[in-house]
Design goal:
The structure is a homodimer of 294-residue chains. The first copy, chain A, has 294 residues and is of the alpha/beta class. Chain A folds into two domains: 77 residues, Winged helix-like DNA-binding domain superfamily/Winged helix DNA-binding domain (Arc Repressor Mutant, subunit A), CATH 1.10.10.10; 177 residues, 3-Layer(aba) Sandwich (Rossmann fold), CATH 3.40.50. The first copy, chain A, is 56% helix and 10% strand. In chain A, helix 12 links the parallel strand 5 and strand 6. In chain A, helix 5 packs across helix 6, helix 10 packs parallel to helix 11 and helix 13 packs across helix 14. The first copy, chain A, is elongated, with a radius of gyration of 27 Å. Chains A and B meet through helix 3, helix 6, helix 7, helix 8 and helix 9 of A and helix 1, helix 2, helix 3, helix 6 and helix 8 of B. Strand 7 of chain A pairs antiparallel with strand 4 of chain B, so a sheet runs across the interface. Chain A binds a DNA duplex (30 and 30 nucleotides) through helix 2, helix 4, helix 5 and helix 6.
Chain lengths: 294, 294
Amino acid sequence: MIRSAAPCEVASPTVEVEERIGRASATLTPAERRVAEVVLEKPQLVAFGTVAELAEASGSGAATVVRLASKLGYDGFTGLQTSVQHALARQLRPAAERIREPAASDAIGRHLDLELDNVATTLRALDDGALTDLVQHLAAPTSRVFVLSGDASLGVARQFVAELHVLRDDVSLIDGNDVAVRRAVSLMRPTDVLVAIDLRRYDRWVIDTAREAQTHGVWCTAITDSLLSPLAAVAEHTFTVAAAGGGPFDSHVGTLALANVIVAALADRLRAEATDRLDRAEAAWRKGDALTDR
Amino acid sequence: MIRSAAPCEVASPTVEVEERIGRASATLTPAERRVAEVVLEKPQLVAFGTVAELAEASGSGAATVVRLASKLGYDGFTGLQTSVQHALARQLRPAAERIREPAASDAIGRHLDLELDNVATTLRALDDGALTDLVQHLAAPTSRVFVLSGDASLGVARQFVAELHVLRDDVSLIDGNDVAVRRAVSLMRPTDVLVAIDLRRYDRWVIDTAREAQTHGVWCTAITDSLLSPLAAVAEHTFTVAAAGGGPFDSHVGTLALANVIVAALADRLRAEATDRLDRAEAAWRKGDALTDR
DNA sequence: GGACGGATGGAATGTCTGTTCCACATTGTA
DNA sequence: TACAATGTGGAACAGACATTCCATCCGTCC
């Protein structure tokens, strides 16, 4: 049987160092061995710590630490530390960069990795408290919900609006020419809720509109690419999305995944009313025979 | 129902730092903002690097880096560095604790699993030959491209249309009332291309419209949930998508990922014309000062 | 039992890094 | 246009660090 030769390339934090320690383990003195054990068990201590800390953790002297590093073939402790740092950095790289290394296998696979990373990064960064707060505002029966989006994400925003609108009334997308947008904003009330969606290379009119809405006392949330986004400045909560694209455009897959979570959470909170609305829509479809299974 | 208070301790690489940057973002000077961007994008540089390196990476001086750290409330750069180190160390805690991540009993984790699966299933099922063929038809300069979508996926379809339209002319979404739709179909020609998007509980009008288009000799492609879909019957190629949703609606994350792949492939094939179109759009935006970085 | 060799940790040293201060540039304003 | 205020980076300074050297200790062999 030919076993695949260790396909798991993630490996432990310090492949390079482990190998050198294994190779030299026979020639290590007792004190050096204690240091080596700590290096293997707590790589962070090597990556972030100092010679003195590593010496204390292993119950030895600073000189022993440096001697071990030299014996392993490194240029002093600094060399060992650099090696461990590189290993750790490689392990926690956001996968978006990891992909470009292997000379891009097939196009579809590259997209797959990219989009998976977009979804994972976006949803892992999602703060539960902020989500709950947003949903609470979206669920308020007295509020009206407005969605504002840059041109690049307009389709996804429309998808978001459409699904929100199934769950509750008074959901609208702010869109159209300058006159229409300004009118819409001028009619906003402090009880209203705004969800603004825009990624870097921000549309100026979106930023301006969001700012204007905030001055009207509207409760704002931002879905954007960074906490340094101008949208974040006007928002109570900011949800950051990963949007690395394999083509000429940003990918809004992460944004849509986030939208799905928000919609699902809102549906959960509005269960009673939402199911009623869904049932009525269902009845209307059935009456008109609008849907079919085949 | 008492919601579990979501202890979810995973968090993103630098939750602490991110929060502080978001809070202070309004008071940051231009140079400080550049530094902050690097801090958010490359935490490793802060954790492993020095003030000088961070200064160079952000194109600013060492003093600015230290000032930013102080402004964020840290005790100098050292404090900022320590904070990032702690965050990174938490993130890469080996396997033992991270195994909980994919399991995920909380709502967000459930969505994460679902959406990852949607993307993976959809793109893994994507046939390279079919994709190439579709792109070839989409790239034909004599063809006109029509996109047809069920109501549930209309937003994603609009996103698809918008991006296609940046790459080439004559792309339109078939939408509107029955009269408008029938007129649009009646004017179709055998050289045209139709991409029909609809998932189970198919919209009858979408199926009918697609069939009608086919009788006009239009080259049809289906993006749907199954090869048994009625859309598949009229299509030259059928791309199946996974759309399991955590809420009351289907998730169109997989569909959007597929759309991204198609758009990217088309952009690749139309490189010359597409970049020209992108450049002209860019010039127009610049002239009107429509986009901004902050 | 004494002397030798290696191992070990403490202290001195020189380099590197973070911090602070100040002169210069840049922006906004009268 | 001139002035004021703020932003900004270079240079000096002080501290921390890795490194090296050396005295001490322990085990071993003669």
